[in-house]
Amino acid sequence: MLVLRSFLYNILFFGIGISFAVALLPVLVFPRSVLQKGLKLWAWVILRGLKPLAGLTWQVKGLENLPDEPCIFACKHQSAWETGAFYLLVNDPAYILKQELLSIPFFGWHLRRSGAISIDRKAGASALKKMISGTKERIARGQNVVIFPEGTRAHPGKPGTYHPGIAALYRGTDAPVIPVALNSGLFWQRRSFLKRPGCITIEFLPAMEQGLDRKAFMKDLQDRMETTTNLLIEDARANCPQALPALEPSENDVSG
Fold first, then answer.
1. At 234, which helix (H) or strand (E)?
2. Coil, strand or helix: which one is 19?
3. How many CB atoms are closer than 10 A to CB 204?
4. If I label 64, which of 12, 26, 152, 248 is the partner at 20 to 30 A Cα–Cα?
């Protein structure tokens, strides 16, 4: 049953993705806000389909921590779920992503028009400058910026490497930085066909304190994101029988 339900959802996910990518092509000539509405509808369809097809729901905690002004969301990254969820959670999101994604036909065109900030990971300091200037521009026009500090999806309970780009944004802009924890990887695992029944939880934490030096900021950010994420993982495993189980110690050692 799990395989069948996952198969049906994957048909929806990729079928809707392709359909929207084509259907939204004419929208590219309209103001960017029109495309954002189309992307919000895409996110609503693919995430709404999780419950009836995969038995997977989601809940949000910490909404009281969202500021009234545009901000930077530093989000834990475990699955593809959060790459669409922010279209439903915050107003007018702009994702920071790797430059290669913009070269994908249709999909990349929509990302570029939506206000996404592309980064060449091999460009070093110039990439950081571009990211800071791009973030300032998006914040100034009212967009919320979403960045995954780990850069790529990490296995639940096993943190990835937190890269310094988020610290550059913290020090290079005046925007609040909101840490975001989640447990999506327990149900929508990286590079996995299966979608497990249960409930994804995403939690917005209080904004980072202003005035920290780079080292203190990175430590506090990672500690807060990992601590809350681990609590969400523990709670989900206790309440959702089909959530992804913890790796055995030997597996952690090998994969590290």
1. helix 214-239
2. helix
3. 22
4. 152
CA count, 13 A, side-chain hemisphere, 188:
28
Structure tokens at 253: 């050692």
Locus of tokens 């994957």: 10
Both tokens assigned to 24:
């939204």
Q: What is the dihedral of CA 119, 123, 125, 130, to 10 degrees?
A: -30
Question: Quick one: pLDDT at residue 41?
Answer: 96
User: Any idea of the CA torsion for 58, 169, 32, 59, to the nearest 10 degrees?
Assistant: 10
Does a structural domain hold residue 236? Answer: yes
Cα–Cα distance, 59 to 232 (Å, whole number): 11
Residue 135 within a domain: yes
Identify the burial level of 116 via C-beta atoms within 10 angstroms of its C-beta, where 0-12 means exposed, 13-18 middle and 19 or more buried: buried
Question: DSSP letter string over 49-94?
Answer: THHHHH-EEEEEE-GGG--SS--EEEE---SSHHHHHHHHHSSSEE
254: amino acid identity, one letter: V
Tell me the per-residue pLDDT of 186-218, one tens digit each, with 9 for 90 and over.
999 888 889 999 999 999 999 999 999 999 999
CATH number at residue 196: 3.40.1130.10
For residue 103, give its domain range: 56-245
Closest CA to 33 of 90, 113, 135, 145: 113
Name the 3-class secondary structure at 20.
helix
Q: How many domains does the chain have?
A: 1
6: in domain? no
Over residues 87-111, the mean pLDDT reads 91
Residue 196 lies in a domain: yes
